[in-house]
DNA sequence: AGGACACCCGTACAGGTATACGGATGAAAG
DNA sequence: CTTTCATCCGTATACCTGTACGGGTGTCCT
């Protein structure tokens, strides 16, 4: 059945409690937009590489990540559009770095998890 | 050009530095799997609702989120498969709650961001 | 038993998203 | 000024993912 239905809640109290403080769909969409950007292996490792090296150009990123330049260029385009990466043009090379307002807690958590997941064959808490 | 190319790095030092400590593609894929699960408005608000109410059944979740039961059922299936949500069956209703080992930092960050994004029309730091 | 209800599952469909290719832009080197 | 090089852009394609629909299973109530 589609959302427009009439149902009797099993636990009305909890439903009311959840509804009263439930976040808006727009807010959720905005946050999921950010999470979607990090939810990609290429972009996540790219962010890691930029975090470690301060700045890199497209070609060097492709070498560092063992990927095609197309892939890196596309990833950078999305991250740049979202304001998570800024570009500095010097001659014919474009140096990319993480934006200053890159969400710190998300970055720290993800990069540390990456290290943990890399150097532990099997783990538990993700 | 595809990944199999021969290029000369512009900043060999930084490339080597990034390559030496770059996380594995498998680790990145595993982490992005988790991030992908949270990168959906329905699932994110569902997690929020469960965080607030301790536990809810499918029908009540649909009421709380103003969504179809199908949508909630599908979201729960993915979260359960990933071990992020556990189900408790009582009679003919199935109560769902967040798993104990749900990644705490990720949960805290996302839920607080959700509140901030909901009660601020326009904001800055996402 | 019979009917109503809560929920799950398999399939089909539509939308968004990543990748590969070709060409275009702009800067530097010969 | 032509060539080389780093990068970007538009398009086409394959893919992954969320949603909708129909049917099925088990449970409670009468």
Question: What labels describe this entry?
Answer:
homodimer, 126 residues, mainly alpha, 3-stranded antiparallel sheet, 6 helices, 3 strands, DNA-binding
Structural features, described:
The structure is a homodimer of 126-residue chains. The first copy, chain A, has 126 residues and is mainly alpha-helical. Chain A is built from six helices and three strands, in the order αααβααββα. A three-stranded antiparallel beta sheet of chain A has the order 1-3-2. In chain A, helix 4 packs across helix 5. The longest helix of chain A has 16 residues. Chain A is elongated, with a radius of gyration of 20 Å. In chain A, 33% of the residues are buried. At the A-B interface, helix 1, helix 2, helix 3, strand 1 and helix 4 of A face helix 1, helix 2, helix 3, strand 1 and helix 4 of B. Chain A binds a DNA duplex (30 and 30 nucleotides) through helix 5.
